[in-house]
Amino acid sequence: MPRPKSTVSLDEVHWGALKTLFPYLLEFRRAVALALLCLIGAKVAGVTLPFILKHIVDDLDNVGGLAQAVALPLGLLLAYGAVRFSSTLFGELRDTIFGRVTERAQRRVGLEVFQHLHKLDLDFHLDRRTGGLSRDIERGNSGIGFLMRFMVFNIVPTLVEIAMVAGLLWWNYSGVFALVVVSAVVVYISFSVVATEWRTRFVRALNEAESQASSRAVDSLLNYETVKYFANERHESSHYDRELAVWERARRKNRLSLFSLNTGQALIIAIAMCAAMVLAAMGVVKGKMTIGDFVLVNAFMMQIFIPLNFLGFVYREMKGALANIEKMFSLLTVKPAVADTPGAPSLQVREGRIDFEAVQFGYNDSREILSQVSFSVLPRQKVAIVGASGAGKSTLFKLLFRFYDASGGAIRIDGQDIRSISQESLRRAIGVVPQDAVLFNQSIRENVRYGRVDATDEEVMAAIRHAQLADFVEQLPQGVDTLVGERGLKLSGGEKQRVAIARALLKKPPIMIFDEATSSLDSRSERGIVASLQEIAREQTTLVIAHRLSTVVDADKILVMDQGRIVEQGSHGQLLEQDSHYAMLWRMQQQERTPVMGEESPEAPQFVGP
Ligand SMILES: Nc1ncnc2c1ncn2[C@@H]1O[C@H](COP(=O)(O)OP(=O)(O)OP(=O)(O)O)[C@@H](O)[C@H]1O
């Protein structure tokens, strides 16, 4: 199956974008051939029309005083109607048949961009602005439809039609007519190309302004709650209005430039039409041409200048469409920073052992976040990571999950360097309950099922029970079918976390990561979940980040992190005995601990960091 070129450099993209569309034309060659036949039919009918008209006019001119109803060139008139209708019919058939080709191309390219976006690394997605991105894709996609339709059915056929008309005028009358037509066309096209090039910058500026305004609006609406917390509606509106003002200015400049282009084109056409008509009128006066010939010349001029005018529009729009496609395809040129090596094998999880070996990492060159981090997690062990905010705990998980690659050292699972295996197999083997669970705007059931999309309803319900979510779900009028709202905002923080836990439990991976997964829960729910998790964790290797030290006292090993280094490790008892960093944190948490409403026992201290 032909595939469009997937990476196009920005410099070559202008015309390179056209090349990417050829495979689709080839794939649907029968539909394209049929549509081309319809096109030829429509053009032949179009060129025949002025000749029929000429004969009708000449016949009428010669009727004299006879009874006109009898002498009417009825056959010619009927033929005129039939040819006109068939010209339109062929045009419609052509569009209908070719529509399939363009729609399929749009679907394929849309899918390719979507898949590529999912392949890109976390950094790209953290930097992107969703509103602008979706507009770029939307515009690029409709640009493809436009370009394919007009490239095949407008530009080349119009030029052929013009050549045919010029030839016919030359053949039937004189070379001067052909000269007028050809010169007008050359001037018209040259003017259109130069003026359109000049306008491109206005079109680009307008697109840019539209994307900016749209990004701003989407970002603001996504942060609806934050805007309200700070009563910043006016601030948001004024920012948005500033973007809209830029858009307004860009639009005005764009319109003015379009005015100049349209006016120039109309002037060239008017001069050419006038010249041809004057020539024809002189021919009639001199008796070299009939009135029918005069009408024919007029009809031909109209016939070529209408599509020529359209050609100007097409060229203009084509430039816009190319700019849009260029922007969309430029997304495909973004290379993911984390990529599989060609033919990377799948991860084989035999026991679930994890080794970090002298791992080094920084999100950028200027700041090191992890330095020389080494530790091992034995199969089915529970290892906890504790430390101050910003110490690099979540970063460890992001590296294990290969959102980023370490700049030094290695991470191995059962002896396999995670850089040498496929990302998909790695991620299948690891379940994550993140710090901030984000849900799809679907039902609770579907959100939980996302953990394993082929899970049965019974399995989903079992996961919901294990995550202590069943009581809550029962209270809801629509139960598990309740919609959770955008990003899950209709659920409380704790409920959202429990949905995320249920989802991860359903996945049943050999390795499980909990990144402060119970931080939004009250102590009673937390204890319930921790008990469930402990039961399940016996089968799995588990890594836990916790601020509440009481939730990890049972861990096989606790790693204490500070400023990107592991400063201590051991069991809860061993670390207390060492009486160092961890022991100090433990004591601090116990001292600072104040009873929390609704808790029965005040045994759980809060981790506040050194
Ligand atoms: N995408 C990113 N780009 C640049 N810096 C980042 C990025 N993500 C995290 N950081 C920085 O890396 C450092 C470590 O972050 P990390 O999330 O690992 O800390 P943490 O120990 O999990 O903190 P917390 O307990 O508050 O969640 C922080 O200083 C943070 O600002």
Automatic annotation (TrEMBL):
It is a multi-pass membrane protein. InterPro entries: AAA+_ATPase (IPR003593), ABC1_TM_dom (IPR011527), ABC1_TM_sf (IPR036640), ABC_transporter-like_ATP-bd (IPR003439), ABC_transporter-like_CS (IPR017871), P-loop_NTPase (IPR027417), Type_1_exporter (IPR039421). The keyword Transmembrane helix applies. One of its GO terms (molecular function) is ATP binding. It is found in: Cell membrane. The chain crosses the membrane at residues 31-53, 65-83, 146-170, 176-195, 259-282, 294-315. Pfam families: ABC_membrane (PF00664), ABC_tran (PF00005). Keywords: ATP-binding, Membrane, Nucleotide-binding, Transmembrane, Transmembrane helix. Residues 354-588 form the ABC transporter domain. Residues 33-320 form the ABC transmembrane type-1 domain. Gene3D superfamilies: ABC transporter type 1, transmembrane domain, P-loop containing nucleotide triphosphate hydrolases. The keyword Transmembrane applies. CDD domains: ABC_6TM_ATM1_ABCB7. This is ABC transporter ATP-binding protein/permease.
